[in-house]
Amino acid sequence: MADGGANFASDPGTPREESSGLERLIDIGLALSAERNHDRLTERILLEAIDIAKADGGTLYLKTEDDTLKFINVRNGTLKIAMGGTTGVPINFPPLKMYNPETKQPNHNNVATYVALTGKTINIEDAYEAEGFDFSGTKKFDQSTGYRSKSFLTIPLKNYSESVTGVLQLINATDGKGTIITFSKDVQRLVGALASQAAVAIDNQQLIEAQKALMDSLIKVMAHAIDAKSPYTGGHCQRVPELTKMLAQKAVESSDPPFKDFALSEADWYELHVAAWLHDIGKVTTPESVVDKATKLQTIYDRIHEVRMRFEVLRRDAEIKMLKSIAKGKSARVERKKFKERCAELDAQWKFIAESNLGGEFMSKDKQDKVKEIAAQKWYRYLDRKLGLAWAETKLFEAAPPAAEGWEQLLADLPEHSVAEYNLGEILNMCIARGTLNDDERRKINDHIVLTIDMLKELPFPKHMRRVPEYAGGHHEKMDGTGYPNKLKAEQMSLPARIMAIADIFEALTAADRPYKKAKTLSESVKILYFMKKDRHVDPELFELFLSTGTYKDYAEQFLRPEQVDSVNIDQYLDSKKAPPAPPPPQPQAQAAE
User: Fold this and answer.
1) pLDDT digit string, tens, across residues 390-409
2) Half-sphere exposure of 86 toward its Cβ, with a 13 Å CA cutoff?
3) Cis preceding linkage at 485, omega within 30
4) Beta 180-181 vs 378-381: how paired, if at all?
5) Helix axes 38-53, 21-34, angle to 10 degrees
6) Strand 96-97 with 81-84, pairing
7) H or E element at residue 169
8) Do 203 and 63 fall into the same domain?
9) Which DSSP string do the residues of 2-19 spell out, in sequence order?
10) Would 237 be classed as within a structural domain?
């Protein structure tokens, strides 16, 4: 037992053939540099040190940011203690404090903390006779177990900058026959060399993990920023990665022919994780007025309010006309009847325009013509419309008609409605056939995937992450080659990219926070996805895997509202012999184009 109550040690493992110390260290160094798993790395360091020194056990500590030594691995062959590392047995010993919490003085009483503070190696022949260190906890442990803690070798782990990052402590060197002896100078040098290699290996791994953690944080910050741009797509960039990984895991586990050779290494999983989180990074450039466009006339605000006021003006004009006619001696009864009829007409026209502004179902040519007919009505403007405008907006009016008073259409497509790459014309937008986006806005939405690819290609991804742009940039491609931006066909797309396409679509279908549609139920969403499969917009085999493994249900239980989660009879979508369900009604264009 050593240093404050924990018995460090481990079974040194299976004896191995003798080899020269140098060759042994070379082999260990190569093995340590190749190990990427933190638990396996720290465990191997301790076991190799125990084996080299023929010790009965030992402990590996790592220094924490709050100046304590944390127990990472504990082994003892005699007592058959194995904790930490890959054992799955937790270490419940409290960390060793390097400084007194009250006096803030360095803790030199404990040999492990002394080594961590000074960077010196301590080789103790017998802990019971050692001076300058407190082994009371060790003696108490020995009394309770019948163990005899005697020789100790405590060595600091120093990184490139000579900073101590941990401590390696071995207990009870043996002569190979079970007799406890002192750790020899030769053993001390060999274990010291191993400790140096170990410190570098741990430091490298910690640096890699820190870089990975930083990258993950930056990725999530970007994704959160994109979601935060719009109150309607919040969470999309977080939910798509979850569904992507859920379906990918089912593909890995599947033994069906399409997936039996599909496997993902730890690096592959991380590559997919990054791609899923960054799949919509291009949306950072998409204006909120486009992403959040809930109605046809909405820009930064909904211009339907302006249109309503024009209807109010027409109604007042009708009333003024009626009163003037009566004042001139015309029949009051006749004029009031005309006014009442005009009010009814304006009310019906306003309700039609207001309803049309909502988008949604397909707008027929007849309805579009009706919009244009209503729009042709005139109202009289008296005030200068160029006053009170920002400089940039004033520039838009240079090509506009004179600002003096005059007649204007109820709705119009005016020169000043052409703003940069967008056409804000009132008639043009009111006649959008489906959804709320016009062609310019649709192109802008679609551009986010092009920008996603371009932005990701600019990042210097390491070799094992070179497919991130391809995975992230393929979620709007379709199996029949009609998707965008590259019109790829199924055989041109990797399986992870096809998985992400399904995840992106299903999240969009089930999302309950979109401005242009109400939340769809689980069964409605599966049905729509089924017809997308029939049209070869999504991978048919992945669609069947999605249903047959219950992934759709697992996702729904985690992310859908309770009222959305209804029962789904997946047999009608998996058994080709059964009659397919009726096609779903036409869907609004989902501008999130998730």
Assistant:
1) 887 777 777 666 667 889 99
2) 10
3) yes
4) unpaired
5) 170
6) unpaired
7) strand 164-174
8) yes
9) BTTTB---B---S-----
10) yes
CATH number reported for the structural domain that contains residue 277 in this entry: 1.10.3210.10
Q: What is the CATH number of the domain that holds 54?
A: 3.30.450.40
Are 273 and 386 found together in one domain? Answer: no
426-446 pLDDT, tens per residue? 999 999 998 888 999 888 888
User: What is the pLDDT confidence band of residue 10, given thresholds at 50, 70 and 90?
Assistant: very low
Same domain, yes or no: 182 and 86? yes
Q: Tell me how crowded residue 464 is: count the other CB atoms within 10 A of its CB.
A: 12
Pair 88, 167 in one domain? yes
pLDDT tens for each residue of 494-518: 999 999 999 999 998 998 766 556 7
Is 237 exposed, middle or buried (CB count within 10 Å of its CB: 0-12, 13-18, 19+)? buried
> Is the same domain home to 395 and 467?
no
Find out whether 66 and 96 touch, Cβ atoms under 8 Å.
Answer: no
User: pTM for this structure?
Assistant: 0.69
Question: Which range of residues forms the domain containing residue 367?
Answer: 304-435
Question: Which tokens is 309 given?
Answer: 């006021």
Six token digits for residue 491: 């055989």
Q: Which residues is 378 bridged to in the sheet?
A: 409
Distances, alpha carbon 426 to alpha carbons 294, 314, 410, in Å? 15, 18, 10
Domain membership flag for residue 111: yes
Structure tokens at 360: 């949604």
How many domains, in total, are found in the chain? 3
